[in-house]
Amino acid sequence: MGSVKDLEVLVPPEGDVTGTGRFRFSDRYSVFDWGEMPDLIPDKGASIALLSAYFFEKLEDSGMKTHYLGLVEDGGAKPLAELKGPSTTMEIRLLRVLKPEFADGAYDYSCYEGEKGNFLIPLEIIYRNSLPEGSSVFRRLSSGEVRPEDFGLDRMPVPGEELEEPILDVSTKLEVTDRYISWEEARRIAGLSEAEIEDIKGVALTVNRMITDEFSRIGLKNEDGKIELGFDPERRLMLVDVLGTLDECRFTYRGIPVSKEIARIYYRNTAWYGAVEEAKAADRMRWKELVREAPEPLPPRLRTLISQVYASCTNEITGREWFREIPPVEEILGEVKEFLSGRTAVA
Question: What is the CATH number of the domain that holds 167?
Answer without folding.
Answer: 3.30.470.20
